[in-house]
Write a structure and sequence with these properties.
The complex is a heterodimer of chains A (308) and B (301). Chain A has 308 residues and is mostly helical. Chain A is built from 13 helices and two strands; from the N terminus they run ααααααββααααααα. The relative contact order of chain A is 0.18. The chains are: A mainly alpha (308), B mainly alpha (301).
Protein backbone atom coordinates (compact mmCIF):
# COMPACT_ATOMS: atom_id res chain seq x y z
CA UNK A 1 0.00 0.00 0.00
CA UNK A 2 1.33 3.40 -0.85
CA UNK A 3 2.13 5.79 1.96
CA UNK A 4 -0.40 8.39 0.82
CA UNK A 5 -3.18 5.80 0.60
CA UNK A 6 -2.36 4.68 4.13
CA UNK A 7 -2.59 8.24 5.42
CA UNK A 8 -5.87 8.78 3.63
CA UNK A 9 -7.29 5.57 5.12
CA UNK A 10 -6.06 6.64 8.53
CA UNK A 11 -7.80 10.01 8.25
CA UNK A 12 -11.06 8.34 7.16
CA UNK A 13 -10.88 5.93 10.10
CA UNK A 14 -10.24 8.80 12.50
CA UNK A 15 -13.26 10.75 11.22
CA UNK A 16 -15.38 7.60 11.40
CA UNK A 17 -14.28 7.13 15.02
CA UNK A 18 -15.63 10.60 15.89
CA UNK A 19 -19.11 9.19 15.26
CA UNK A 20 -18.70 6.59 18.01
CA UNK A 21 -20.34 8.75 20.73
CA UNK A 22 -23.45 9.00 18.54
CA UNK A 23 -23.90 5.31 17.85
CA UNK A 24 -22.15 3.31 20.57
CA UNK A 25 -23.18 2.35 24.09
CA UNK A 26 -21.78 4.18 27.09
CA UNK A 27 -19.31 1.48 28.03
CA UNK A 28 -17.87 1.47 24.52
CA UNK A 29 -17.60 5.25 24.48
CA UNK A 30 -15.65 5.19 27.71
CA UNK A 31 -13.38 2.32 26.58
CA UNK A 32 -12.54 4.03 23.29
CA UNK A 33 -12.20 7.38 25.00
CA UNK A 34 -9.51 6.04 27.33
CA UNK A 35 -8.07 4.12 24.38
CA UNK A 36 -7.23 7.44 22.69
CA UNK A 37 -5.30 8.55 25.79
CA UNK A 38 -3.37 5.28 26.04
CA UNK A 39 -2.70 5.37 22.30
CA UNK A 40 -1.04 8.78 22.75
CA UNK A 41 1.06 7.47 25.65
CA UNK A 42 2.01 4.39 23.63
CA UNK A 43 3.01 6.54 20.65
CA UNK A 44 5.07 8.71 22.97
CA UNK A 45 6.77 5.60 24.39
CA UNK A 46 7.50 4.58 20.83
CA UNK A 47 9.40 7.84 20.22
CA UNK A 48 11.94 6.81 22.85
CA UNK A 49 11.82 3.03 22.53
CA UNK A 50 10.92 2.25 18.95
CA UNK A 51 12.29 5.26 17.11
CA UNK A 52 15.36 6.34 19.10
CA UNK A 53 15.97 2.76 20.27
CA UNK A 54 16.43 3.38 24.00
CA UNK A 55 15.01 0.69 26.28
CA UNK A 56 12.68 2.85 28.33
CA UNK A 57 10.72 0.80 30.86
CA UNK A 58 9.62 3.72 33.01
CA UNK A 59 7.49 5.75 30.64
CA UNK A 60 4.48 5.75 32.97
CA UNK A 61 6.43 8.30 35.05
CA UNK A 62 5.96 11.05 32.46
CA UNK A 63 2.31 10.16 31.96
CA UNK A 64 1.96 10.41 35.74
CA UNK A 65 3.80 13.73 35.99
CA UNK A 66 1.38 15.22 33.45
CA UNK A 67 -1.65 13.84 35.25
CA UNK A 68 -0.50 15.05 38.67
CA UNK A 69 0.46 18.50 37.40
CA UNK A 70 -3.04 18.91 35.98
CA UNK A 71 -4.65 17.50 39.11
CA UNK A 72 -2.73 19.78 41.45
CA UNK A 73 -3.16 22.91 39.35
CA UNK A 74 -6.84 22.28 38.77
CA UNK A 75 -7.88 21.21 42.26
CA UNK A 76 -5.64 23.47 44.36
CA UNK A 77 -5.37 26.54 42.16
CA UNK A 78 -8.53 26.25 40.10
CA UNK A 79 -6.80 26.54 36.75
CA UNK A 80 -9.01 25.24 33.87
CA UNK A 81 -8.02 21.80 32.56
CA UNK A 82 -6.99 22.77 29.06
CA UNK A 83 -4.83 25.61 30.40
CA UNK A 84 -2.94 23.14 32.53
CA UNK A 85 -2.03 21.07 29.50
CA UNK A 86 0.87 23.22 28.26
CA UNK A 87 2.25 23.34 31.80
CA UNK A 88 1.88 19.55 32.12
CA UNK A 89 3.69 19.10 28.80
CA UNK A 90 6.56 21.37 29.80
CA UNK A 91 6.97 19.88 33.28
CA UNK A 92 6.86 16.30 31.95
CA UNK A 93 9.34 17.13 29.22
CA UNK A 94 11.66 18.74 31.78
CA UNK A 95 11.41 15.72 34.08
CA UNK A 96 12.18 13.51 31.09
CA UNK A 97 15.19 15.61 30.13
CA UNK A 98 16.53 15.79 33.68
CA UNK A 99 16.12 12.03 34.18
CA UNK A 100 17.58 11.22 30.80
CA UNK A 101 20.60 13.54 30.85
CA UNK A 102 22.77 11.40 33.11
CA UNK A 103 21.57 8.00 31.91
CA UNK A 104 21.43 8.19 28.10
CA UNK A 105 25.07 7.17 27.95
CA UNK A 106 24.15 3.79 29.42
CA UNK A 107 23.70 1.06 26.88
CA UNK A 108 20.68 -1.20 26.41
CA UNK A 109 19.80 -3.16 29.49
CA UNK A 110 21.53 -0.81 31.92
CA UNK A 111 19.35 2.04 30.71
CA UNK A 112 16.32 -0.20 31.06
CA UNK A 113 17.14 -0.97 34.68
CA UNK A 114 17.78 2.70 35.46
CA UNK A 115 14.34 3.65 34.08
CA UNK A 116 12.73 0.92 36.20
CA UNK A 117 14.49 2.49 39.17
CA UNK A 118 13.13 5.93 38.34
CA UNK A 119 9.64 4.51 38.05
CA UNK A 120 9.87 2.94 41.50
CA UNK A 121 11.26 6.13 43.07
CA UNK A 122 8.42 8.09 41.41
CA UNK A 123 5.88 5.71 42.93
CA UNK A 124 7.43 6.12 46.39
CA UNK A 125 7.37 9.91 46.00
CA UNK A 126 3.64 9.78 45.15
CA UNK A 127 2.73 7.36 47.94
CA UNK A 128 4.77 9.14 50.62
CA UNK A 129 3.16 12.43 49.65
CA UNK A 130 6.35 14.42 49.22
CA UNK A 131 5.75 18.13 49.65
CA UNK A 132 2.18 17.38 50.71
CA UNK A 133 0.73 17.86 47.23
CA UNK A 134 0.28 14.33 45.81
CA UNK A 135 -2.43 13.15 48.20
CA UNK A 136 -0.48 10.04 49.23
CA UNK A 137 -1.78 6.55 48.38
CA UNK A 138 -5.31 7.89 47.77
CA UNK A 139 -4.30 10.42 45.15
CA UNK A 140 -6.26 13.53 44.21
CA UNK A 141 -10.03 13.69 43.68
CA UNK A 142 -12.59 16.00 42.07
CA UNK A 143 -10.62 17.05 39.04
CA UNK A 144 -12.72 19.17 36.75
CA UNK A 145 -13.77 18.65 33.16
CA UNK A 146 -12.28 20.60 30.27
CA UNK A 147 -14.16 23.56 28.88
CA UNK A 148 -14.01 24.58 25.26
CA UNK A 149 -15.09 28.15 24.35
CA UNK A 150 -16.84 28.45 27.67
CA UNK A 151 -18.70 25.14 27.40
CA UNK A 152 -18.04 22.70 30.25
CA UNK A 153 -17.54 19.25 28.76
CA UNK A 154 -19.03 16.94 31.32
CA UNK A 155 -20.52 14.26 29.11
CA UNK A 156 -18.71 11.10 28.12
CA UNK A 157 -19.07 12.07 24.51
CA UNK A 158 -17.37 15.38 25.19
CA UNK A 159 -14.37 13.74 26.83
CA UNK A 160 -14.28 11.34 23.93
CA UNK A 161 -14.03 14.14 21.38
CA UNK A 162 -11.32 16.03 23.28
CA UNK A 163 -9.25 12.85 23.66
CA UNK A 164 -9.62 11.92 20.02
CA UNK A 165 -8.65 15.40 18.90
CA UNK A 166 -5.41 15.03 20.89
CA UNK A 167 -4.86 11.60 19.35
CA UNK A 168 -5.41 13.10 15.89
CA UNK A 169 -2.89 15.88 16.56
CA UNK A 170 -0.32 13.38 17.88
CA UNK A 171 -0.86 11.13 14.85
CA UNK A 172 -0.14 14.04 12.52
CA UNK A 173 2.96 14.87 14.58
CA UNK A 174 4.15 11.26 14.38
CA UNK A 175 3.55 11.21 10.68
CA UNK A 176 5.66 14.34 10.32
CA UNK A 177 8.36 12.95 12.57
CA UNK A 178 8.47 9.93 10.31
CA UNK A 179 9.40 12.07 7.34
CA UNK A 180 11.45 14.74 9.04
CA UNK A 181 15.17 15.04 9.52
CA UNK A 182 14.71 14.50 13.25
CA UNK A 183 12.98 11.18 12.67
CA UNK A 184 15.78 10.05 10.39
CA UNK A 185 18.39 11.04 12.98
CA UNK A 186 16.56 8.96 15.61
CA UNK A 187 16.43 5.98 13.27
CA UNK A 188 20.09 6.36 12.39
CA UNK A 189 21.06 6.50 16.07
CA UNK A 190 19.03 3.38 16.70
CA UNK A 191 20.48 1.40 13.81
CA UNK A 192 24.11 2.41 14.19
CA UNK A 193 25.10 4.93 16.81
CA UNK A 194 28.78 4.79 15.96
CA UNK A 195 28.18 5.55 12.29
CA UNK A 196 25.80 8.37 13.17
CA UNK A 197 28.35 9.89 15.54
CA UNK A 198 31.11 9.76 12.97
CA UNK A 199 28.85 11.63 10.57
CA UNK A 200 28.56 14.43 13.10
CA UNK A 201 25.32 13.56 14.88
CA UNK A 202 25.48 14.64 18.52
CA UNK A 203 24.16 11.37 19.97
CA UNK A 204 23.76 12.61 23.53
CA UNK A 205 21.79 15.68 22.47
CA UNK A 206 19.38 13.74 20.26
CA UNK A 207 18.89 10.97 22.80
CA UNK A 208 17.96 13.49 25.48
CA UNK A 209 15.72 15.23 22.96
CA UNK A 210 13.93 11.93 22.27
CA UNK A 211 13.24 11.54 25.99
CA UNK A 212 12.04 15.13 26.25
CA UNK A 213 9.72 14.72 23.27
CA UNK A 214 8.31 11.39 24.43
CA UNK A 215 7.87 12.66 27.97
CA UNK A 216 6.13 15.86 26.83
CA UNK A 217 3.60 13.96 24.71
CA UNK A 218 2.94 11.57 27.59
CA UNK A 219 2.36 14.61 29.80
CA UNK A 220 -0.34 15.91 27.44
CA UNK A 221 -2.06 12.53 27.64
CA UNK A 222 -1.72 12.73 31.43
CA UNK A 223 -3.77 15.95 31.50
CA UNK A 224 -6.68 14.33 29.69
CA UNK A 225 -6.36 11.15 31.76
CA UNK A 226 -6.71 13.13 35.01
CA UNK A 227 -9.74 14.94 33.61
CA UNK A 228 -11.38 11.82 32.12
CA UNK A 229 -11.25 9.88 35.40
CA UNK A 230 -11.59 13.04 37.54
CA UNK A 231 -9.08 11.45 39.93
CA UNK A 232 -5.46 10.41 39.89
CA UNK A 233 -3.70 7.88 42.12
CA UNK A 234 -0.26 6.26 42.26
CA UNK A 235 -1.57 2.92 40.93
CA UNK A 236 -2.05 4.27 37.42
CA UNK A 237 1.63 5.07 37.01
CA UNK A 238 3.43 2.09 38.48
CA UNK A 239 6.02 -0.15 36.91
CA UNK A 240 3.33 -2.53 35.56
CA UNK A 241 1.93 0.33 33.47
CA UNK A 242 5.37 0.99 32.04
CA UNK A 243 5.67 -2.70 31.25
CA UNK A 244 2.35 -2.58 29.42
CA UNK A 245 3.48 0.44 27.38
CA UNK A 246 6.76 -1.28 26.59
CA UNK A 247 4.92 -4.42 25.51
CA UNK A 248 2.47 -2.42 23.37
CA UNK A 249 5.35 -1.05 21.31
CA UNK A 250 7.19 -4.35 20.94
CA UNK A 251 4.05 -6.45 20.36
CA UNK A 252 2.61 -3.95 17.89
CA UNK A 253 5.79 -3.14 16.01
CA UNK A 254 8.54 -0.65 16.77
CA UNK A 255 8.40 2.72 14.99
CA UNK A 256 5.21 1.64 13.21
CA UNK A 257 2.20 3.91 13.80
CA UNK A 258 -0.45 1.31 12.85
CA UNK A 259 1.53 -1.27 14.83
CA UNK A 260 1.52 0.80 18.02
CA UNK A 261 -2.20 1.55 17.62
CA UNK A 262 -2.92 -2.14 17.09
CA UNK A 263 -0.75 -2.95 20.09
CA UNK A 264 -2.80 -0.55 22.20
CA UNK A 265 -6.01 -2.23 21.04
CA UNK A 266 -4.64 -5.67 21.97
CA UNK A 267 -3.09 -4.75 25.29
CA UNK A 268 -5.68 -2.24 26.43
CA UNK A 269 -9.06 -2.63 24.70
CA UNK A 270 -9.15 -6.44 24.55
CA UNK A 271 -8.54 -6.89 28.31
CA UNK A 272 -11.34 -4.35 28.97
CA UNK A 273 -13.74 -6.33 26.80
CA UNK A 274 -12.87 -9.61 28.51
CA UNK A 275 -13.54 -8.22 31.99
CA UNK A 276 -15.83 -11.22 32.64
CA UNK A 277 -12.85 -13.53 32.70
CA UNK A 278 -11.76 -11.57 35.77
CA UNK A 279 -8.96 -13.52 37.43
CA UNK A 280 -7.96 -15.47 34.33
CA UNK A 281 -7.40 -12.23 32.44
CA UNK A 282 -3.75 -11.65 33.27
CA UNK A 283 -2.89 -15.33 32.99
CA UNK A 284 -4.13 -15.27 29.41
CA UNK A 285 -2.56 -11.85 28.90
CA UNK A 286 0.88 -13.15 29.90
CA UNK A 287 0.47 -16.23 27.74
CA UNK A 288 -0.61 -14.09 24.79
CA UNK A 289 2.53 -11.93 25.14
CA UNK A 290 4.72 -15.04 24.83
CA UNK A 291 2.72 -16.50 21.94
CA UNK A 292 2.71 -13.27 19.92
CA UNK A 293 6.44 -12.80 20.39
CA UNK A 294 7.23 -16.39 19.42
CA UNK A 295 5.03 -16.24 16.34
CA UNK A 296 5.85 -12.67 15.32
CA UNK A 297 9.13 -11.55 16.91
CA UNK A 298 9.09 -8.34 14.85
CA UNK A 299 5.68 -7.38 16.20
CA UNK A 300 2.26 -7.83 14.65
CA UNK A 301 2.45 -4.90 12.24
CA UNK A 302 6.16 -4.18 11.84
CA UNK A 303 7.54 -1.13 10.13
CA UNK A 304 8.42 -1.81 6.53
CA UNK A 305 11.85 -0.73 5.46
CA UNK A 306 11.15 1.50 2.51
CA UNK A 307 13.03 0.55 -0.63
CA UNK A 308 14.80 3.57 -1.97
CA UNK B 1 26.41 -0.13 68.06
CA UNK B 2 23.93 -2.83 69.01
CA UNK B 3 21.48 -1.64 66.41
CA UNK B 4 24.30 -1.70 63.92
CA UNK B 5 25.25 -5.28 64.76
CA UNK B 6 21.63 -6.39 64.73
CA UNK B 7 21.05 -4.83 61.31
CA UNK B 8 24.25 -6.49 60.17
CA UNK B 9 22.91 -9.90 61.14
CA UNK B 10 19.55 -9.24 59.51
CA UNK B 11 21.22 -7.83 56.42
CA UNK B 12 23.49 -10.82 56.10
CA UNK B 13 20.46 -13.14 56.20
CA UNK B 14 18.46 -11.22 53.61
CA UNK B 15 21.61 -10.68 51.58
CA UNK B 16 22.38 -14.35 51.28
CA UNK B 17 18.82 -14.96 50.08
CA UNK B 18 19.23 -12.17 47.49
CA UNK B 19 22.51 -13.75 46.45
CA UNK B 20 20.89 -17.14 45.88
CA UNK B 21 18.24 -15.60 43.64
CA UNK B 22 20.72 -13.26 41.95
CA UNK B 23 22.75 -16.24 40.74
CA UNK B 24 19.88 -17.28 38.48
CA UNK B 25 19.68 -13.82 36.90
CA UNK B 26 23.38 -13.53 36.38
CA UNK B 27 23.88 -16.98 34.87
CA UNK B 28 21.06 -16.49 32.36
CA UNK B 29 22.28 -12.99 31.53
CA UNK B 30 25.82 -14.22 31.17
CA UNK B 31 24.88 -16.62 28.41
CA UNK B 32 21.73 -15.25 26.77
CA UNK B 33 22.14 -11.51 27.51
CA UNK B 34 18.52 -11.67 28.62
CA UNK B 35 16.99 -10.24 31.79
CA UNK B 36 14.87 -13.17 32.88
CA UNK B 37 12.00 -11.22 34.38
CA UNK B 38 10.25 -14.47 35.32
CA UNK B 39 13.05 -15.58 37.65
CA UNK B 40 11.73 -13.85 40.77
CA UNK B 41 8.34 -15.46 40.22
CA UNK B 42 9.94 -18.88 39.82
CA UNK B 43 11.68 -18.36 43.16
CA UNK B 44 8.37 -17.52 44.84
CA UNK B 45 6.78 -20.53 43.15
CA UNK B 46 9.33 -22.51 45.18
CA UNK B 47 8.02 -20.94 48.39
CA UNK B 48 4.44 -21.92 47.55
CA UNK B 49 5.33 -25.50 46.59
CA UNK B 50 7.34 -25.85 49.80
CA UNK B 51 4.48 -24.47 51.87
CA UNK B 52 2.01 -26.92 50.33
CA UNK B 53 4.31 -29.88 50.97
CA UNK B 54 4.83 -28.84 54.60
CA UNK B 55 1.19 -28.22 55.40
CA UNK B 56 -0.09 -31.34 53.66
CA UNK B 57 2.48 -33.70 55.21
CA UNK B 58 2.62 -32.21 58.68
CA UNK B 59 -1.08 -31.65 59.19
CA UNK B 60 -2.23 -28.56 61.01
CA UNK B 61 -0.88 -29.07 64.52
CA UNK B 62 2.67 -29.03 65.80
CA UNK B 63 6.04 -28.39 64.23
CA UNK B 64 6.77 -30.29 61.03
CA UNK B 65 9.37 -33.05 61.37
CA UNK B 66 12.79 -32.53 59.89
CA UNK B 67 12.27 -35.00 57.06
CA UNK B 68 9.16 -33.10 55.96
CA UNK B 69 11.15 -29.89 55.67
CA UNK B 70 13.81 -31.67 53.65
CA UNK B 71 11.16 -33.19 51.36
CA UNK B 72 9.66 -29.71 50.94
CA UNK B 73 12.98 -28.29 49.82
CA UNK B 74 13.68 -31.20 47.46
CA UNK B 75 10.24 -31.06 45.83
CA UNK B 76 10.34 -27.26 45.52
CA UNK B 77 13.76 -27.45 43.85
CA UNK B 78 12.72 -30.23 41.48
CA UNK B 79 9.45 -28.67 40.37
CA UNK B 80 10.85 -25.18 39.95
CA UNK B 81 13.79 -26.55 37.97
CA UNK B 82 11.33 -28.32 35.67
CA UNK B 83 9.37 -25.09 35.33
CA UNK B 84 12.62 -23.28 34.50
CA UNK B 85 13.49 -25.71 31.71
CA UNK B 86 9.94 -25.54 30.34
CA UNK B 87 10.14 -21.75 30.39
CA UNK B 88 13.38 -21.74 28.44
CA UNK B 89 12.08 -24.25 25.95
CA UNK B 90 8.75 -22.56 25.23
CA UNK B 91 9.33 -18.84 25.77
CA UNK B 92 13.02 -18.15 25.16
CA UNK B 93 14.45 -20.77 22.81
CA UNK B 94 12.28 -19.81 19.81
CA UNK B 95 13.42 -16.20 20.25
CA UNK B 96 17.12 -16.80 20.54
CA UNK B 97 17.88 -15.20 17.19
CA UNK B 98 15.12 -12.60 17.27
CA UNK B 99 15.42 -8.95 18.31
CA UNK B 100 16.50 -8.81 21.95
CA UNK B 101 13.41 -6.93 23.08
CA UNK B 102 11.14 -9.70 21.82
CA UNK B 103 12.66 -12.05 24.37
CA UNK B 104 12.31 -9.34 27.04
CA UNK B 105 8.56 -9.05 26.34
CA UNK B 106 8.29 -12.82 26.33
CA UNK B 107 9.98 -12.86 29.74
CA UNK B 108 7.57 -10.21 31.03
CA UNK B 109 4.66 -12.31 29.74
CA UNK B 110 6.07 -15.40 31.44
CA UNK B 111 6.40 -13.44 34.69
CA UNK B 112 2.75 -12.40 34.48
CA UNK B 113 1.71 -15.96 33.64
CA UNK B 114 3.56 -17.55 36.57
CA UNK B 115 2.42 -14.85 39.01
CA UNK B 116 -1.24 -15.24 38.09
CA UNK B 117 -0.87 -19.00 37.90
CA UNK B 118 0.27 -18.96 41.55
CA UNK B 119 -2.68 -16.73 42.42
CA UNK B 120 -5.18 -19.09 40.76
CA UNK B 121 -3.68 -22.31 42.16
CA UNK B 122 -3.10 -21.07 45.71
CA UNK B 123 -4.73 -17.84 46.78
CA UNK B 124 -4.88 -14.13 46.11
CA UNK B 125 -4.44 -13.64 49.88
CA UNK B 126 -1.24 -13.76 51.90
CA UNK B 127 -0.53 -17.28 53.15
CA UNK B 128 1.27 -17.85 56.45
CA UNK B 129 3.93 -20.46 57.06
CA UNK B 130 3.44 -22.68 60.14
CA UNK B 131 5.68 -22.26 63.17
CA UNK B 132 8.67 -24.42 63.89
CA UNK B 133 9.82 -25.24 60.37
CA UNK B 134 13.25 -24.51 61.68
CA UNK B 135 14.24 -24.59 65.39
CA UNK B 136 12.88 -21.58 67.24
CA UNK B 137 16.01 -21.20 69.35
CA UNK B 138 17.60 -17.77 69.53
CA UNK B 139 21.07 -16.88 70.68
CA UNK B 140 21.78 -13.65 72.54
CA UNK B 141 25.08 -11.86 72.21
CA UNK B 142 24.75 -8.81 74.37
CA UNK B 143 21.54 -7.32 72.99
CA UNK B 144 22.07 -8.78 69.54
CA UNK B 145 19.69 -11.63 68.80
CA UNK B 146 20.53 -14.29 66.26
CA UNK B 147 17.93 -16.92 65.51
CA UNK B 148 18.72 -20.47 64.49
CA UNK B 149 16.73 -19.83 61.30
CA UNK B 150 19.12 -17.04 60.37
CA UNK B 151 22.13 -19.26 60.98
CA UNK B 152 20.57 -22.00 58.86
CA UNK B 153 19.77 -19.64 56.00
CA UNK B 154 23.22 -18.07 55.94
CA UNK B 155 25.04 -21.39 56.34
CA UNK B 156 23.07 -23.25 53.67
CA UNK B 157 23.33 -20.32 51.28
CA UNK B 158 27.09 -20.20 51.69
CA UNK B 159 27.44 -23.94 51.16
CA UNK B 160 25.30 -23.76 48.02
CA UNK B 161 27.19 -20.77 46.63
CA UNK B 162 30.52 -22.45 47.31
CA UNK B 163 29.25 -25.61 45.60
CA UNK B 164 28.13 -23.63 42.56
CA UNK B 165 31.40 -21.75 42.43
CA UNK B 166 33.38 -24.98 42.49
CA UNK B 167 31.06 -26.58 39.94
CA UNK B 168 31.41 -23.71 37.50
CA UNK B 169 35.14 -23.22 37.99
CA UNK B 170 36.51 -26.70 38.61
CA UNK B 171 34.45 -29.12 36.53
CA UNK B 172 34.46 -29.86 32.83
CA UNK B 173 30.82 -28.85 32.35
CA UNK B 174 31.41 -25.71 34.39
CA UNK B 175 34.12 -24.77 31.96
CA UNK B 176 31.62 -25.26 29.14
CA UNK B 177 29.23 -22.89 30.91
CA UNK B 178 31.91 -20.23 31.23
CA UNK B 179 33.02 -20.71 27.65
CA UNK B 180 29.44 -20.30 26.35
CA UNK B 181 29.11 -17.12 28.38
CA UNK B 182 32.20 -15.62 26.77
CA UNK B 183 31.47 -16.54 23.17
CA UNK B 184 28.63 -18.82 22.15
CA UNK B 185 29.78 -19.34 18.59
CA UNK B 186 33.36 -20.12 19.52
CA UNK B 187 32.10 -22.50 22.20
CA UNK B 188 29.96 -24.27 19.63
CA UNK B 189 32.93 -24.59 17.30
CA UNK B 190 34.89 -26.19 20.13
CA UNK B 191 32.26 -28.90 20.27
CA UNK B 192 30.33 -27.60 23.26
CA UNK B 193 26.61 -28.34 23.16
CA UNK B 194 25.43 -24.80 23.88
CA UNK B 195 21.77 -25.85 24.01
CA UNK B 196 22.62 -28.24 26.80
CA UNK B 197 24.57 -25.51 28.60
CA UNK B 198 21.63 -23.11 28.37
CA UNK B 199 19.23 -25.79 29.60
CA UNK B 200 21.56 -26.50 32.53
CA UNK B 201 21.60 -22.83 33.46
CA UNK B 202 17.80 -22.90 33.51
CA UNK B 203 17.99 -25.86 35.92
CA UNK B 204 20.65 -24.47 38.25
CA UNK B 205 19.30 -20.90 38.44
CA UNK B 206 15.68 -21.73 39.24
CA UNK B 207 16.77 -24.52 41.62
CA UNK B 208 18.82 -22.06 43.68
CA UNK B 209 16.03 -19.50 43.28
CA UNK B 210 13.49 -21.97 44.67
CA UNK B 211 15.63 -22.46 47.77
CA UNK B 212 15.91 -18.69 48.10
CA UNK B 213 12.15 -18.32 47.70
CA UNK B 214 11.43 -20.95 50.32
CA UNK B 215 13.91 -19.22 52.65
CA UNK B 216 11.96 -15.99 52.19
CA UNK B 217 8.76 -17.80 53.13
CA UNK B 218 10.31 -19.42 56.18
CA UNK B 219 12.12 -16.27 57.33
CA UNK B 220 9.20 -13.88 57.01
CA UNK B 221 6.67 -16.67 57.64
CA UNK B 222 4.44 -15.57 54.81
CA UNK B 223 4.04 -15.72 51.05
CA UNK B 224 1.87 -13.77 48.62
CA UNK B 225 1.58 -14.46 44.91
CA UNK B 226 2.96 -11.14 43.63
CA UNK B 227 5.98 -10.80 45.88
CA UNK B 228 8.16 -12.40 43.22
CA UNK B 229 8.68 -9.15 41.42
CA UNK B 230 10.02 -7.10 44.32
CA UNK B 231 12.35 -9.85 45.55
CA UNK B 232 13.29 -10.58 41.95
CA UNK B 233 14.02 -6.93 41.32
CA UNK B 234 16.20 -6.70 44.43
CA UNK B 235 18.07 -9.85 43.47
CA UNK B 236 18.53 -8.45 40.00
CA UNK B 237 19.90 -5.21 41.44
CA UNK B 238 22.27 -7.37 43.48
CA UNK B 239 23.42 -9.08 40.30
CA UNK B 240 24.10 -5.69 38.69
CA UNK B 241 25.95 -4.38 41.74
CA UNK B 242 28.24 -7.39 41.59
CA UNK B 243 28.62 -7.19 37.84
CA UNK B 244 25.95 -8.89 35.76
CA UNK B 245 27.09 -12.14 34.21
CA UNK B 246 29.67 -12.67 36.93
CA UNK B 247 28.87 -15.50 39.38
CA UNK B 248 31.04 -14.49 42.37
CA UNK B 249 29.83 -10.94 41.67
CA UNK B 250 26.21 -12.00 42.24
CA UNK B 251 27.17 -13.50 45.58
CA UNK B 252 29.01 -10.38 46.72
CA UNK B 253 26.33 -8.10 45.29
CA UNK B 254 23.60 -9.99 47.14
CA UNK B 255 25.38 -9.74 50.47
CA UNK B 256 26.22 -6.07 49.97
CA UNK B 257 22.67 -5.20 48.95
CA UNK B 258 21.26 -7.07 51.93
CA UNK B 259 23.56 -5.23 54.32
CA UNK B 260 22.98 -1.88 52.62
CA UNK B 261 19.20 -2.06 52.56
CA UNK B 262 19.01 -3.30 56.11
CA UNK B 263 21.28 -0.51 57.35
CA UNK B 264 19.35 2.01 55.24
CA UNK B 265 16.07 0.94 56.82
CA UNK B 266 17.63 0.97 60.28
CA UNK B 267 19.37 4.32 60.09
CA UNK B 268 17.75 6.42 57.38
CA UNK B 269 14.14 5.46 56.81
CA UNK B 270 12.26 2.21 56.41
CA UNK B 271 9.56 3.75 54.22
CA UNK B 272 12.20 5.01 51.80
CA UNK B 273 14.33 1.87 51.95
CA UNK B 274 13.38 0.66 48.50
CA UNK B 275 13.83 4.09 46.94
CA UNK B 276 17.27 4.36 48.53
CA UNK B 277 18.16 0.99 47.02
CA UNK B 278 17.11 2.22 43.60
CA UNK B 279 19.07 5.41 44.12
CA UNK B 280 22.15 3.32 44.90
CA UNK B 281 21.49 1.26 41.78
CA UNK B 282 21.32 4.32 39.54
CA UNK B 283 24.45 5.73 41.16
CA UNK B 284 26.35 2.49 40.55
CA UNK B 285 25.12 2.34 36.96
CA UNK B 286 26.42 5.86 36.39
CA UNK B 287 29.77 5.41 38.09
CA UNK B 288 30.58 1.84 37.23
CA UNK B 289 27.90 0.21 35.06
CA UNK B 290 29.80 -3.06 34.90
CA UNK B 291 29.47 -3.55 38.65
CA UNK B 292 32.09 -4.43 41.21
CA UNK B 293 33.52 -7.53 39.59
CA UNK B 294 32.39 -6.98 36.01
CA UNK B 295 35.11 -6.56 33.47
CA UNK B 296 35.22 -3.41 31.44
CA UNK B 297 34.26 -4.33 27.94
CA UNK B 298 34.59 -1.96 25.03
CA UNK B 299 31.24 -1.31 23.42
CA UNK B 300 32.42 -1.48 19.87
CA UNK B 301 35.78 -1.57 18.22
Amino acid sequence: MKQSVKQYLGAVLWIAALLVPVVASNSWISILSVFAIYAVVALSTDVVLGRAGMYDMGHAVYFGVGAYVTAILNVQYGIPILWTMPIAVVVSALVGIIFAAPIVKLRGDYLLVATIGFNEIFRMVLINDVGGVTGGPDGIFNIGAPSVFGYQINSQGGHFLVNWVLLGVVLVLMNNLEKSRLGRVFRYLKEDELAATTLGVNARYYKILAFGLGAGLAGAAGTLFASELSLVGPDSFVFMQSVTLFAIVIVGGQASIPGVLLGTVLMFVVPQVFRDLAEYRYLIFGLAMIVVMVLRPQGIWPRRSRPQ
Amino acid sequence: MDIFLQQLVNGLTVGSIYALIALGYTMVYGILKLINFAHGDLAILGAFIGLTVITSLAGSGGAPANWIVIVAFVLAVLMVAIAGVLLEFTAYRPLRNAHRLSAVVSALGASMFIQNGIMLIWSPQTLTFPEGIMPETTYHFGSVIISATQIFIVAISFVLMLALYLYVNKTRFGTAIRASAIDQDAARLMGINVNKVIASVFILGPALGAIGGLFIGIYYRQAVFDMGWIYGLNAFIAAIIGGIGNIPGAMIGGLLLGLFSSLASGYISSTWQQAIVFGLLILILLVRPTGILGERVADKV
